[in-house]
Amino acid sequence: MTDTSQRDTSGTLGEMGAVVETGDRAGAVDWGIPAPGGAFDAHKPPDAALIGDCVHCGFCLPTCPTYVLWGEEMDSPRGRIYLMKEGLEGEPMDDEMVGHIDACLGCMACVTACPSGVQYDVLIEQTRNQVERHHDRSAADKALRGLIFALFPHPKRLKLMRGPLKLAQRTGLDRALRRTGLLERISPQLAVMESLAPRLGKPQPLPEYIHATGERRMVVGMLVGCVQGAFFPGVNSATARVLRAEGCDVVVPASQGCCGALSAHNGREPEAQDFARRLVDSFEDSGVERVVVNAAGCGSTMKEYAALLADDPAYAERAAAFAEKVRDVSEILVELGPVAPRHPLEMTIAYHDACHLAHAQGVRSEPRQLLEAIPGLELREIAEAEICCGSAGIYNVLNPEPARELGDRKAANIVRTGAQVLVTANPGCLMQVTSAIERAGHPMGMAHTIEVLDASIQGAPASALLPDQTAS
Question: What residues does the 4Fe-4S ferredoxin-type domain cover (predicted)?
Fold first, then answer.
């Protein structure tokens, strides 16, 4: 949480809601034109019309993770919108303003909660693009962010990490290092990265073309992803098996790379655009009717490619056509309807809504519909479902303390359900919640939605999804 003592935030809510004010107030601006010398340049500043949509009613407050933690107005959506307004009116981009913007998880729970339809998702990305262009970060922050973006959006580099990481896990070196607390003392952020790493199994590469079982109903492309592909290959294999069983030919272009989600969500607009162009190229001539995604953060960005590449004359139309095809795997399966038989799974699960699936994409009923159709399975809802688990892309690495608080809060609510398995639809959530559940001392199974469905179709026992009692 950042100090707000030096900024005057004493205006009434009505005053906070107006970007263009009457009278001779110094610093008032015309719609869409940032005041000279202020925080923002003229290239896609926070949209003044969207800022004006916020009436500061407060419906967002109980859903905002940072406001729930700290109760600080400037660490709420409406507070950050007020800071955007100030930036347009000529306030400089100082460390305090950036601190509040950086503290946002980008979970978009406020978008779901807002009765006025404020597009906070658009505003926060516009603002973060400005921050990355104009704010001079500390050397340590630059180094950490440089490391993150030199690694996580690059599938080949992530796969190179598998060998050393797997060796450390096999020998117990990772646990020994954790017990010493050395890495925590050197860098809490690096310690978080190490602690979040999942237990690695065998690589499960997919062929470029997988034929449907029985009659073909659809041809779909499949995103392999970065973290998903390197650290959760079983999720991709399960996705391909379920799609195949439900009558889909699955195309997995070998040329595909990162979708650009991490870059887009952290203000690195040119980098995100480059990743998006390459992904459009990879799938463009594949002949697929849909592009299937099994990672919530990736899907939310890919569905927004039309906006991301709107100013690129060579890609604008192509990006829009691509985005129209993008679907979360749960959406595709509900759209098709089941043909493969479901076998019973006698167990209880708690379903965690990944923020970029529920809030950013509005996909809530489809995963539940798929899970509730499995015989013998009991689905239990989690209290405070709208509150983020603290993963939020790379937020848990950049901001380990609030992320840990949110993770522990989520873990406590999950444990209270008494469920045997936690199910969600995003690799970041799986890593974050697994770590928090382990800290809580209540081991339980962790699975992606598609892995549960795959187990049912394959006729696997429920024990396949329960905690491995032999793991130390």
Answer: 44-74, 95-125
CA distance 75 to 444: 33
Mapping DSSP to helix (H, G, I), strand (E, B) and coil, where does residue 147 land?
Answer: helix
d(C-alpha 328, C-alpha 349), whole Å: 21
* C-alpha–C-alpha distance, residues 337 and 325, integer Å: 18
Residue 60 has pLDDT above 70, yes or no: yes
Q: How far is CA 316 from the centre of its chain?
A: 24
Determine the residue type at 426: N
User: Does pTM top 0.85 for this prediction?
Assistant: yes
User: In whole angstroms, what is the distance from residue 364 CA to residue 386 CA?
Assistant: 11
For 360-403, what is each residue's pLDDT tens digit? Answer: 999 999 999 999 999 999 999 999 999 999 999 999 999 999 99
96: exposed, middle or buried (Cβ count in 10 Å: 0-12, 13-18, 19+): middle
Tokens of 472: 């130390």
C-alpha distances in Å from residue 46, one per residue of 86, 201, 311, 339: 11, 44, 17, 47
Structure tokens at 280: 């459009």
Domains of the chain: 26-134 (1.10.1060.10), 139-196 (no CATH), 209-334 (3.40.50), 341-465 (3.40.50.11810)
The dihedral sign for the CA sequence 60, 107, 298, 378: negative
Whose CA is closest to 235, among 423, 461, 420? 423
Q: Report helix, strand or coil for 117.
A: coil
